[in-house]
Amino acid sequence: MASTMFVVAALSFFVIFTTATQSFADGEIKATDQIKKNPAQMQILKKIELSKKILAEMQQGKQIQNEQALKIAEMRKEAKTRLSTEVNRMNAEYDQYTPKNAFSKFVSKKPTEIQGIYWAMFNYQQEKVKLAKDARDQVLAHGGASQEAWNAYHKASAINRIKVIELNTEYNIRHGAADAATQQAFDKNGKLPRAD
C-alpha cells in the first residue's frame, strides 16, 4: 500500500514537472555553454529552476495563509472581548432575576423562623441541578448524543415524593419547626396513621 502511494506520488510529481517544464522552457535559464549543449543537464536544470519557482510560490501562499490566520485570530479575540463585555453587562442588568436573588425575595416574605427550611430546600435543589449539569456535560464530553445527555440530566435531577418527605422532615427538625417525636408520627408517605 505504501509503495503504491509512493508510485502515485512520484508519477504525479513527474507529470507536474513535465507539464510545468514545458511551459517554463520558454524562459531564460542561466547556464554555461557546456550545460546548454547537454540536453539531459538542461532538462535537470529546468526542473531545478521550476522547483525553486514552485517552492517560492508555496512559501508565498503559506505566508498569506499565516497572515489570514493572524487576522482571524485577532477578529476572534475582539469578538470574544465584546461578547464578554456584553455578558457582564447583561449579568449586572439581570442580577435581580438570578435564581438565588429571585428566591431570596420570595423567602423574605415568609416568617423568619421557617426561612432556613426554604433555604435548605433551595440549596438542595441547586446541588441537584449542578449534579444534573455535570452528568449531562460528562455524556457530551464522552461523545454521547444530545438526547442521551438530556436523559442523564433528567435522571440526575429527578427526585421522588418519598425523598421530598424525608427532606421536609429533616429540615423541619434541623431548623426547629418541628420536633423529632412529632415527625416520627408520620409514615414514609408523610401521612399520620388513621384510627378508623
What does the model show?
The structure is a single chain. The protein folds into 2 domains: 2-93; 98-158. It is 79% helix and 0% strand. The chain has helices at 2-24, 33-37, 39-93, 99-108, 112-141, 146-157, 161-174, 180-184. The termini are far apart. Residues 15-26 have low confidence and may be disordered.
Secondary structure elements and pairings:
Elements: H1 2-24, H2 33-37, H3 39-93, H4 99-108, H5 112-141, H6 146-157, H7 161-174, H8 180-184
Helix pairs in contact: 1-3, 4-5, 5-6, 5-7
- Indicate the structural class: mainly alpha
By oligomeric state, this entry counts as single chain
- Percent of sequence in beta strands: under 5%
**Amount of helix:** over 70%
Shape: elongated
Order of helices and strands: HHHHHHHH
Spatial gap, N to C terminus: 87 Å
**Over the alpha carbons, how many angstroms does the gyration radius reach?**
38 Å
